[in-house]
Design the sequence.
């Protein structure tokens, strides 16, 4: 009890320090709350407050768990690490949910969207075929290219003579 009173008087100052100016007294923290009666008097009739006991913290299970968590923390082991099986199962479940959402999005596509997708695929196929033809022409020997040019010029001359 005396130790508590001594520590309280250490923190609480009723008068300002002697080396400060009285004009600066508003800067000094003062005791705002009144001190309770049981600190000053040793009156046996008064009931002194006691700290309540927390049944959770006093339980043996809680103490063991707390001790184990502290030890794991000192060792650097994280208690939030899940077993590998649980991680795999959660990942599968997430993947399954994502797959279901994608399938629902596919089902909800309208006829117009489906037709646009078909046309887009056809255009991509045509572009691939053009690229293949260009590659074949580039890789062809020079005499084949000259022969093709002669045929075209011959056809153009024949069409010009007919018209």
Sequence:
């Amino acid at each position: 009890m005396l130790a508590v009173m001594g520590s309280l008087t250490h923190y609480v100052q009723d008068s300002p320090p002697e080396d400060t100016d009285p004009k600066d007294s508003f800067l000094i923290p003062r005791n705002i709350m009144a001190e309770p009666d049981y600190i000053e008097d040793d009156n046996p009739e008064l009931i002194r407050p006691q700290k309540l006991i927390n049944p959770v913290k006093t339980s043996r299970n809680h103490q063991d768990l707390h001790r184990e968590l502290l030890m794991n923390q000192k060792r650097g082991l994280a208690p939030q690490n899940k077993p590998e099986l649980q991680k795999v199962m959660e990942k599968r479940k997430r993947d399954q949910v994502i797959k279901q959402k994608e399938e629902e999005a596919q089902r909800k596509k309208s006829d117009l969207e489906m037709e646009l997708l078909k046309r887009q695929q056809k255009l991509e196929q045509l572009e691939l075929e053009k690229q293949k033809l260009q590659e074949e022409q580039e890789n062809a020997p020079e005499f084949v290219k000259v022969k093709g040019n002669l045929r075209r010029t011959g056809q153009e001359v024949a069409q010009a003579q007919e018209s």
About this structure: The chain has a mean pLDDT of 78. The chain has seven helices and no strands. Residues 2-75 form one domain. Helices lie at 2-11, 37-40, 55-58, 60-75, 84-107, 111-139, 142-162.
